[in-house]
Amino acid sequence: MNTEITIHPTLQHCGLTTANLDTMLEWYRKVLGLFVHNRVKAPAGSPFKTVAFATNDEVNHRLSFFETPDVSIDNDRNRHARVQHIAFEYESLDDLLGTYVRLTKLGMLPLWAADQFFQTAVYYEDPDGNIIELNTNNFANDWTVTEQLKALPAQVHINVDPEEMVAARKAGASPWEVHERAVAGEFTPATSYELHTTRW
């Protein structure tokens, strides 16, 4: 038993409270392919009614949803300490952009999208106003991405229009070329994202 050196555990899951359990589970099913392993009633005296354990991979649960009937959405969360977002990583730019297209067909539009040099990310808001980031690395492996993140200039966040990135890929641009063109400002949205109007 090691009692002297810090062990590095793996981040396994996040827990969310909600008054809209079924709506939330359906949204995450559509967006992430989440499936529920179990829904259990909370013991008497608990502040919540039901817990749903859900995942989209081999881990027993990545998200746990605590159904709490009296909980309300904080429309002023911008000014309060909170979890700012939860992120999910795709293996490729095509997987990320393909998901964007699929969700758009379902009427689920992102809040904003950006090339952040080390990664490309698209942000969505779930039914309770939590921000979900979908991303992919712009470099070949995690070690390279880490080195790029360490070397970032003070400000690198280029807003992008995913539609233009999809069009570029369909026209034959490689993922790296799409990244370079994004950083050069070629895919800047025609109108600015109104981030101040969201609960980001």
How does the helix and strand content classify structurally? alpha+beta
CATH class of the largest domain: Alpha Beta
Helical fraction equals 25-40%
Please state the average pLDDT score: 92
Give the distance, in angstroms, between the N- and C-terminal Cα atoms.
Answer: 42 Å
Low-confidence stretches: none
Helix count, per DSSP?
5
Largest sheet: 5 strands, mixed
The CATH topology annotation of the largest domain reads as Signal recognition particle alu RNA binding heterodimer, srp9/1
State the main characteristics.
single chain; 200 residues; alpha+beta; 9 strands; 26% helix
Question: Can you characterise this structure?
Answer:
The chain is of the alpha+beta class. It has 2 domains: 14-67; 83-192, 2-Layer Sandwich (Signal recognition particle alu RNA binding heterodimer, srp9/1), CATH 3.30.720. Helix content is 26%, strand content 24%. The chain has 5 helices and 9 strands; from the N terminus they run βαββββαβββαβαα. It has helices at residues 21-32, 93-105, 142-150, 162-170, 175-183; strands at 14-18, 35-41, 50-55, 63-67, 86-90, 112-115, 119-125, 131-137, 158-159. Strands 5-8-7-6-9 form a 5-stranded mixed β-sheet. A 4-stranded mixed β-sheet has the order 1-4-3-2, covered by helices on one side. A hairpin with a 7-residue loop joins β3 and β4. The radius of gyration is 19 Å and the shape is globular. The model has no long low-confidence stretch (mean pLDDT 92).
